[in-house]
Write a structure and sequence with these properties.
By secondary structure, the chain is an alpha+beta fold. The chain folds into three domains: 129 residues, D-Maltodextrin-Binding Protein, domain 2 (3-Layer(aba) Sandwich); 88 residues, Periplasmic binding protein-like II (D-Maltodextrin-Binding Protein, domain 2); 67 residues, Alpha-Beta Plaits, CATH 3.30.70.120. It is 27% helix and 31% strand. It contains eight helices and 16 strands. Strands 2-3-4-1-5-12-6 form a seven-stranded mixed sheet. A five-stranded mixed sheet has the order 9-8-10-7-11. Strands 14-15-13-16 form a four-stranded antiparallel sheet, covered by helices on one side. A hairpin with a 6-residue loop joins strand 14 and strand 15. Helix 3 packs across helix 4. Bound molecules: phosphoribosyl ATP (PRT) and zinc ion. Phosphoribosyl ATP binds next to helix 3, strand 10 and helix 5.
C-alpha cells in the first residue's frame, strides 16, 4: 500500500460530455481502478493515482485548493473560473499542462433570426443571456461595448423567445441547438476543448515522479491516436518518393530483402492517419505488399 500523501488525485467530470473520454484517457495511460461505494472516488489499483468524480464546475477550485493535483475540464469552465479568481485577487490558481483534443466547442453569440441585432456593432444597449457572465463581460470590456449581461444557468437559447434577452452567448458544437431555436450564429469569443490542469504549487516529492510519468503517458496516448505503422516492399530507387508521400513519417527503417536484388522492406511510423489515396500513390511510386497497422502504445 502506497502511503496516502504520495497518491495523486485527478478530478474529472462525474457524468457529462467529458466523462467517457476522460476515463478512457486514464485507462489508456494504464490506470486500473475500483470505484468506492459512494462512486465519487476511483481508487487506483496499479498506480498511486485516485480519480475524483465531481461536477465540472468544481474542478478548477479543487485544483486551486490543492484538494486535487490534476484535473480535466473544458477551457470554457476554466476561463470563467480564472476570471472569478482573478477578481478575488488569486493570480495563478492553476496551470494548463496539456490540451486533450476532445470536448471541442466554442462560445459564440447567437442572434435571433428575425431580431434587430445582426453583429457586434448593434450590441450596445442590448441584453445578452449567457452561462459565462465573466467571459462575456471581459470580452465586452476589451472591445468597449456597453451591453448588459444576464446570467442564465441553463437553457440560454430560449432567453430571447421568453423576452429575457435580445441575444445569447452560448457554447456551440454542431450548431443544431441554435438553428432549432431560430438563432443565427455570430462571432466566436472563445474556442474550447478539454484540458489537463495542474496545481502551480510545489507537490510532495513522492508525487512529482508519478505526475511526470502520467504526463508522458498522456503524450504517448495522444500521439498514437492517429499514428499508424506502415510496412511495404519497394525498390531502393523509390525511397525518396515514398518518404515524400507518407504524412508525418519519422526516419523509415529499410531492411534488405533476401535474394530480391534492389528491393527492400520499408517500415515507418506515420504520425497521421494514412488514407487510401496515400496507399494508391505509394503503389504508383513502386511500393507493393502495403500493410497499415494501428499503433497501440508509443514512448518517444
Ligand atoms: O453536471 P456538470 O456541471 O458536470 O455538467 P454540465 O452540464 O455543466 O456540462 P456538460 O456535460 O453539458 O458539458 C461539459 C463540457 O463539455 C462543457 O463545459 C464543454 O467544455 C464541453 N462541450 C462540448 C459542450 C458542448 N460541446 C456542447 N455542445 N458543452 C455543452 N454543449 C451544449 C451547449 O451548451 C448547447 O446547449 O450543447 C448545446 C449546443 O450543442 P450543438 O451541437 O447543438 O451546437
Ligand atoms: Zn457544469
Amino acid at each position: 500500500m502506497i502511503e496516502q500523501a504520495a497518491r495523486i488525485k485527478v478530478a474529472i467530470q462525474k457524468s457529462g460530455r467529458l466523462t467517457d473520454r476522460s476515463l478512457e484517457l486514464l485507462e489508456r495511460c494504464g490506470l486500473k481502478y475500483t470505484r468506492g461505494r459512494d462512486q465519487l472516488i476511483g481508487y487506483g489499483e496499479n498506480m498511486p493515482v485516485d480519480v475524483l468524480l465531481v461536477r465540472d464546475d468544481d474542478i478548477p477550485g479543487l485544483v486551486r485548493d490543492d484538494v486535487c493535483d490534476l484535473g480535466v475540464v473544458g477551457m470554457n469552465v476554466l476561463e470563467e473560473r480564472r476570471l472569478q479568481f482573478q477578481a478575488e485577487g488569486v493570480s495563478e490558481p492553476f496551470r494548463v499542462v496539456r490540451p486533450l483534443d476532445y470536448g471541442r466547442c466554442h462560445l459564440a453569440f447567437g442572434y435571433p433570426e428575425d431580431g434587430p441585432v445582426r453583429s457586434l456593432a448593434e450590441l450596445p444597449g442590448r441584453r445578452i443571456a449567457t452561462s459565462y457572465p465573466r467571459i462575456v463581460q471581459d470580452f465586452l470590456r476589451r472591445n468597449a461595448i456597453a451591453a448588459q449581461v444576464v446570467e442564465f444557468s441553463g437553457a440560454v437559447e430560449i432567453a430571447p423567445s421568453l423576452g429575457r434577452a435580445d441575444v445569447i452567448c452560448d457554447l456551440v458544437s454542431t450548431g443544431a441547438t441554435l438553428a432549432a431555436n431560430r438563432l443565427r450564429e455570430g462571432e466566436t469569443i472563445l474556442d474550447s476543448q478539454a484540458v489537463l490542469i495542474q496545481t502551480p504549487r510545489e507537490v510532495a516529492p513522492a508525487k512529482t515522479e508519478w505526475i511526470a510519468r502520467l504526463l508522458q503517458r498522456i503524450d504517448g496516448v495522444m500521439q498514437v491516436r492517429e499514428s499508424k505503422y506502415v510496412m511495404m516492399n519497394a525498390p531502393v530507387s523509390a525511397l525518396a518518393e515514398i518518404a515524400r508521400l507518407l504524412p508525418g513519417a519519422d526516419a523509415p527503417t529499410v531492411i534488405p530483402l533476401e535474394g530480391r536484388g534492389d528491393k527492400v522492406a520499408v517500415h515507418v511510423v506515420c504520425r497521421e492517419n494514412v488514407f487510401w489515396e496515400t496507399l494508391e500513390n505509394l503503389k504508383k511510386a513502386g511500393a507493393s505488399s502495403l500493410l497499415v497497422l494501428p499503433v497501440e502504445k508509443m514512448l518517444p
